Queue: 3 jobs
Job 1
Amino acid sequence: MLSAEEQAHIAQVWDLIAGHEAPFGAELLLRLFTVYPSTKLYFQHLGAFPDEVQLLSHGQRMLQAVGVAVRHLDNLRAALRPLADLHAHVLRVDPANFPLLIQCFQVVLASHLQGEFTVEMQAAWDKFLTGVAIVLTEQHR
C-alpha cells in the first residue's frame, strides 16, 4: 500500500506530532464540528458545546489511535480491528464522515507544521489516512 518513502514521510510527521496528541486532536475535533456540524451527532457524549477538557481528552484518544496505525503500517487491519468493530457495530458511524475527518486533519497538520509539511508528506498522509478510513469502514458491510 505505502512505499518506503511514503512510510518515511508518515513517520517524520508523526515524530513532530508525538507528545502533542491532545492539542492536535482537540483542534481537529473543533475544526470538524465547526466546518461539518452534522458530525457532532457521533459525539453527543461531549454535549452541545464541548469544553476544552473534553476536546483534549477525546482528541488525545483519537490521535493515539492514529499513532497505533502509524506503528502498524504493514498490518492496519489487525491493529485497527477493535476500533473498526467499535465504529461499525457500537457507534454506527456513517463511513461518509471519515473523509471529512481526514480533510480536517490535513488542515490541522498544514497549519501547525507549515513549511515542514511538504507536498510529498501531505500526499503520503492522505494515502495513509484514507487507508485507515477504509479499514475502519470495512466492518460496515
Job 2
Amino acid sequence: MEKVLVAGAHGTTGQKIISLLKESQYFTPIAMVRNQEQAERFKSKGVTSVVADLENDLTHATKGVDKVIFAAGSKGKNLKAVDQEGAKRLIDASKTNEVKKFVMLSSIGAEHPEKSDQLVDYLKAKHNADEYLKDSGLKYAIVRPGTLNNETGNGKIKLAEILESRGDIPREDVAQTLVRALHDDTANDAVFEIITGEVLIGEALDQL
C-alpha cells in the first residue's frame, strides 16, 4: 500500500479524495491539515493526518510519503501564497523526500490565463504552479477540470490536452480522476483538461 499525502484534505473535493483512497486496495491516505482540530476529525474516521501550513516549510509533511495529491486552494483569498507558492513548497518538499509521483489539481484554462475574463489571477497562480511542477524533475500528472459542481458523479469524462469546449464536472468525478492518475501505469508527465463526458474515467486516462 502506497502512502498518499492529500493537501487540501479538509476541503470538499479533498474529503472525497480521502474517502476514495481509504477504500482503495493500492493506497493509504494521509490528510494534510492546518490545525489539530481538523486532525482529530480525520483521526475519528481512522485516517492518519499531518499538521502543516502551505505558507511554511513542508519538509516534515512529505517524509515517508510515496505520492502526493495537491487539492488545496484559498478560494481566491490568498492566491499567490497558497495556490501558487504553497504548491511550489509542497513540490520542493516532495523532491527533498523523493516522492514518486505528484498529482496536481489545476483548472481548465490554466494553460492560457490571459484569455480569461474574470479568473486571470487565479489561473495565473495555477499556471505558475503547474509550470513549476513540470520543471521539477518529479513524475507528475496535472488535472485541469472545468467548473466543479456537487452533483453525483457518473464516472464518465471528456478528456483532452486542451478541450475545445468548457463545461462542468462533479467533484466526485474529479476526485476519481486524481486518484486514478496516481497509478504508475497512467497519466505520467501528462497535462489534461476534463469535463463531464461519455468515456469511463479509466478508459479516458488509458488513452493518454
Job 3
Amino acid sequence: MNYTERSYRQQHRQEDLVHFQLGINETDLDIGIRKERFSPELVKWVEETIRACRKPLEDYIQKDEDFVRSLTPYTVSQDAPPIVQTMAEAGRLAGVGPMAAVAGAVAEWVGKAIARRSRDVIVENGGDIFMRTSRIRKVGVFAGDSPLSNQIAIEVRPSQTPLGICTSSGKVGHSLSFGKADAVVVLSPSVPLADAVATATGNYIQTTDDLEKALEFASRINGVTGILLIKDDRLAAWGSIKLLPVNAGTLVKD
C-alpha cells in the first residue's frame, strides 16, 4: 500500500505555517515556514537551494555507481562531497548502505539553509523530517493499516530542535525495507542518521515478537534520542519521545 498525499503529509503540517511543495527529480519536499517569511522569491530561492544540494550528490554518483547499489556500509573517497560523506557515515553507524540516508540528508541540508531565513521550518522528504521550532508541536504518525495509525502524535519541544524525525515502513511508501513494520520512527539531531537507523530498525521487524530486539538495536546507536515502533496493534518506545493522542484540529499546541 502506498501513501496518499492527504493521509501522509497532513500528519506533520502545522496551522501557523505556510506549507508549499517542490519537486526536483527524485526529491519531493513539503516545506513549512513562518507565514511572514513566505514569498514567491523565497520559493524560487528554495528551489535553487535544492538543486545546489543535489548536484554534488548526483556528480558523485556518476563517478561511483556502487555508492547507490550498496545495501551495506560503504567507504567513499576522501574527496567526496560533504553530503556524500554524511550519508556514508550514517549508513556505517546504522549498518546499512548510504542511500538509506539520502532523504534525511537532503531534508537536513535544505532545512538548515531555510532556517537561516525562518525561525520555524519543517522540511519533509518522503516521511523524513527536519524540524526547527520556536513552539511546542505535535507530529502525527501514519502507520498504514495498523489500528494505531493516525491515533498517536509525537510532541516536539523547541529545546529538542533542530531535530530529525524519520519514518520507515515495510508496508507504506516506496523505500526499500526488508521488514514488515507498520511504522518505525527515529528521532535524532542528525536527520541522515535518523533516516538510516529507521531503515535498519525496520529490517528487524517481521512480527510483533521482534519489537523488543529492534528497540534494543536502535537504542544502542550513538546519536539516536528517541524511537517509536508500531506493528499491528502493538507499539514500543524508548528515549526522549513523548507520545500524545491525536486530536482533530490541534496540530499546533502553544
